[in-house]
Write a structure and sequence with these properties.
Blueprint lengths: L1 H12 L3 H14 L6 E5 L6 H9 L6 E6 L3 H9 L6 E6 L1 H8 L4 E4 L15 H18 L4 E4 L4 H14 L8 E3 L2 H15 L10 E3 L6 E3 L12 H12 L1 H9 L7 H18 L5 E8 L7 E9 L2 E5 L7 H27 L1
Helix pairs in contact: 3-11, 5-6, 6-7, 7-12, 8-9
The structure holds 1,4-dihydronicotinamide adenine dinucleotide (NAI) and oxaloacetate ion (OAA).
Length: about 350
C-alpha cells in the first residue's frame, strides 16, 4: 500500500500536460484530506534532502517546512517546484526555527552528525545529544502538540532526551514521541525476502528492542509469509539486520551512513503517522516509544497509530527461544543508553 502510494504520486507527476490538467481537477476532488503541516529539522542533510523530496510527494501533506542551520533556501526552492499538493518553505538559522515549527502536526528530526567507519552510534552522543535537546526545547515552545519522529542517533538515547526536555517544559505526551526504527524493519523485510525467496512486497517482519547493534531484535519467527529457514539462516539474518547500519557506513567509507534507505523509511513512518492523525483505522508500525512491554521505560515494538499519536503499544507476541535470549541480552545495553539520555538532560 505504501509502495502504491509513492507509485501513484510518481504516476501523477509524470503524466502529459493534458492528462495533468484533467488529473488536477480530479485531484482537488479527492484531496479532501485535512491540512497537515510537516516540518523536517536537518532538511539540508544526507537524509533530510531525500526525505524532504519524499514528503513533498505525499498527498497527505499540505505544508512542508524545511529547516536546517544552513542550505535550506536552496533545498526548499528546488523541492517547491514539484507539482504536488504541499506548499514548501525553507528556514535557516536559529532565528527562523520558531516559524518553521509553528503549527506543525509532525516534526521529523534527522539533524545531527552521522557515523564514520569504526564508530558506534553511541559515539555520536556527544554532539547529537545537545542538538536534539535544543531542537526539542524549541518544539516544546512552538508546537508542543506535534508528533515527533526522532531519527537522529543514538535513537536509544535521543528519544529519552526528548522525553525529559518535554517533561521539564510541562508538555510531555508519551503518545507523541517516536524513535524511528522503520529502517530496521525495511532491512529485515529485504533480507528475509532474499533468503526465503519470497516476494518482498508481501513480506512482514516485526523488529523490536532499540536501534543499535544487539538492541535491534528482528522477530523472524513471526515473519510472514512463513518459510522453512534453518537456525543458521535465522542467526545470519538477525546479525545482518543488526549490522545493517554498519554495512552501509563501511561501504560509504567515511562519507556517512544510510541516507536514501533512511529517507524511504522515514517517509513510510511519517505517512503512517499522518494516516493515524487522519483517523485511518489499523495503522500499525514498529517504533521506539514509551512502553510497559518490558521493564524498560522505552522499547520498540508494534504500535497502533491514531488521532493522538500512539493509540496502543502492542505486545511482543510469542518469541522463539533464540529471540527470548536476544531479548534478555539486549536489555542491559538498552537500559544504559536510556539512562544516559535521561542523565544528560538533568546534568546540562
Ligand atoms: N534512525 C535511523 O534509523 C537512522 C538514523 N540516522 C541518523 O540521522 C542523523 C543524520 O544523518 P545524515 O542526514 O546522514 O547526516 P548529515 O550530516 O548529512 O545531515 C545532518 C544535517 O543536520 C543538520 N544540523 C546539524 N545541527 C543542526 C541543528 N541544530 N538544527 C538543524 N539542523 C542541524 C546539518 O546541518 C546537516 O544538514 C545522524 O545522527 C544519523 O546517525 C541515520 C540513518 C538511520
Ligand atoms: O548505522 C548508522 O549509523 C545509521 C543508522 O542508524 C542505520 O543505518 O541504521
Amino acid at each position: 500500500m505504501k509502495a502504491a502510494m509513492l507509485r501513484s504520486v510518481f504516476r501523477r507527476s509524470t503524466t502529459s500536460p493534458a492528462a495533468t490538467t484533467c488529473l488536477s481537477s480530479r485531484r482537488f476532488a479527492s484531496e479532501s484530506a485535512p491540512e497537515r503541516k510537516v516540518t523536517v529539522l536537518g532538511a539540508a542533510g544526507g537524509i533530510g534532502q531525500p526525505l524532504s523530496l519524499l514528503m513533498k510527494l505525499n498527498p497527505l501533506v499540505s505544508r512542508l517546512a524545511l529547516y536546517d542551520i544552513a542550505g535550506t533556501p536552496g533545498v526548499a526552492a528546488d523541492v517547491s517546484h514539484i507539482n504536488t499538493r504541499s506548499e514548501v518553505k525553507g528556514y535557516a538559522g536559529d532565528e527562523q526555527l520558531g516559524h518553521a515549527l509553528e503549527g506543525s502536526d509532525i516534526v521529523i528530526i534527522p539533524a545531527g552528525v552521522p557515523r564514520k567507519p569504526g564508530m558506534t552510534r553511541d559515539d555520536l552522543f556527544k554532539i547529537n545529544a545537545g542538538i536534539v535537546k535544543s531542537l526539542c526545547e524549541a518544539i516544546a515552545k512552538y508546537c508542543p502538540n506535534a508528533l515527533v519522529n526522532m531519527i537522529s542517533n543514538p535513537v536509544n538515547s535521543t528519544v529519552p532526551i526528548a522525553a525529559e526536555v518535554f517533561k521539564s517544559r510541562g508538555v510531555y505526551d508519551e503518545r507523541k514521541l517516536f524513535g524511528v526504527t522503520t529502517l530496521d524493519v525495511v532491512r529485515a523485510k529485504t533480507f528475509y525476502a532474499g533468503k526465503a525467496n519470497a516476494n518482498v512486497a508481501g513480506v512482514n517482519v516485526p523488529v523490536v528492542g532499540g536501534h543499535a547493534g544487539v538492541t535491534i531484535l528482528p522477530l523472524f519467527s513471526q515473519a510472514s509469509p512463513k518459510a522453512n529457514l534453518s537456525d543458521e539462516d535465522i542467526k545470519a539474518l538477525t546479525k545482518r539486520t543488526q549490522d545493517g547500519g554498519t554495512e552501509v557506513v563501511e561501504a560509504k567509507a567515511g562519507k556517512g551512513s544510510a541516507t536514501l534507505s533512511m529517507a524511504y523509511a522515514g517517509a513510510i513512518f511519517a505517512d503512517a503517522c499522518l494516516k493515524g492523525l487522519n483517523g485511518v483505522p489499523d495503522v500499525v508500525e514498529c517504533s521506539f516509544v514509551q512502553s510497559t512491554v518490558t521493564e524498560l521505560p522505552f522499547f520498540a515494538s508494534k504500535v497502533r497509530l491514531g488521532k493522538n499519536g500512539v493509540e496502543e503499544v502492542l505486545g511482543l507476541g510469542p518469541l522463539s527461544d533464540y529471540e527470548q535470549q536476544g531479548l534478555e541480552a539486549l536489555k542491559p545495553e538498552l537500559k544504559s543508553s536510556i539512562e544516559k539520555g535521561i542523565a544528560f538532560v538533568h546534568s546540562s
